[in-house]
Amino acid sequence: GAGVSQSPSNKVTEKGKDVELRCDPISGHTALYWYRQSLGQGLEFLIYFQGNSAPDKSGLPSDRFSAERTGGSVSTLTIQRTQQEDSAVYLCASSLYAARSGNTIYFGEGSWLTVV
Amino acid sequence: RKEVEQDPGPFNVPEGATVAFNCTYSNSASQSFFWYRQDCRKEPKLLMSVYSSGNEDGRFTAQLNRASQYISLLIRDSKLSDSATYLCVVIDNAGNMLTFGGGTRLMVKP
């Protein structure tokens, strides 16, 4: 596609349920990033993929969070046993290669998660 | 201390004003720097890269000061449409980690 595509765009779930968020990066982009942004807050790094491998998982807030990427393309972020504090917008971004100067990072519109 | 720090604002300025934002970073090995713009409830979008020599794009000028570890963004002749949150982004030397500042909110008034 032309841009980074995320789904669902909005998700309301009950506390304790699992949710899966999907990201389709720009075709050919090897680097993929997940960020979380709570209302009125800055972006919190979650995980970075280069191809299918995740050299940096340092940002995942707990073992309830996991992510994978298959075929060097689509990525899914799974949150198990959701808690109210997980409510946020989950932003996915991609870049052609690692995000050095000259490799623009493009964001999707985000998946807005509300845990009730 | 946060890795990347910005004054959250808001900066309230009249149309036509010149406004400047600073962003400080703590990792001296950081290699790449960007300014992103984020409108309310929208995703961040690249505004401009920041180069050591400084760079200008129309009404926007970005500067990097490695010695003092800060970057700046200057907006001249502010427009109503410039109202947004401006995010400073610092990338480590491996290109793996994009660290965002908390953003500076700008409100341009008529």
Question: Would you summarize the structure shown here?
Answer:
Chain A is mostly beta strands and 116 residues long.
Q: What's the rounded overall pLDDT mean of chain A?
A: 91
Q: Helical amount among residues of chain A, as a percent range?
A: under 10%
| Class from helix and strand fractions of chain A | mainly beta
* Main sheet makeup of chain A: 7 strands, mixed
Radius of gyration of chain B: 13 Å
Strand content of chain B: over 45%
DSSP strand count of chain A = 11
Low-confidence stretches of chain B: none
Give short descriptive properties of this protein.
heterodimer, A: 116 residues, mainly beta, 7-stranded mixed β-sheet, 4-stranded antiparallel β-sheet, 11 strands, 0% helix, 49% strand, B: 110 residues, 6-stranded mixed β-sheet, globular
What do these coordinates show?
- In chain A, a hairpin with a 5-residue loop joins β7 (65-69) and β8.
- In chain A, the strands form two sheets. In chain A, strands 2, 4, 5, 6, 9, 10 and 11 form a seven-stranded mixed beta sheet that branches. A four-stranded antiparallel beta sheet of chain A has the order 1-3-8-7, with no helix packed on it.
- The radius of gyration of chain A is 13 Å and the shape is globular.
- By secondary structure, chain A is mostly beta strands.
- Chain A is built from no helices and eleven strands.
- In chain B, strands 2, 4, 5, 9, 10 and 11 form a six-stranded mixed beta sheet that branches. A five-stranded antiparallel beta sheet of chain B has the order 1-3-8-7-6, with no helix packed on it.
- Chain B is globular.
- In chain B, β6 (55-57) and β7 (60-65) form a beta hairpin.
- The mean pLDDT of chain B is 92.
- Chain B is an all-beta fold and 110 residues long.
- Chain B has strands at residues 4-6, 11-14, 19-25, 32-38, 45-50, 55-57, 60-65, 70-75, 84-91, 98-100, 104-109.
- Classes of the chains: A mainly beta (116), B mainly beta (110).
- The A-B interface holds A 31, 33, 35, 41-43, 45, 48, 50, 55-56, 91, 93, 97-110 and B 31-32, 34, 42-46, 49, 51, 87, 89, 91, 94-103.
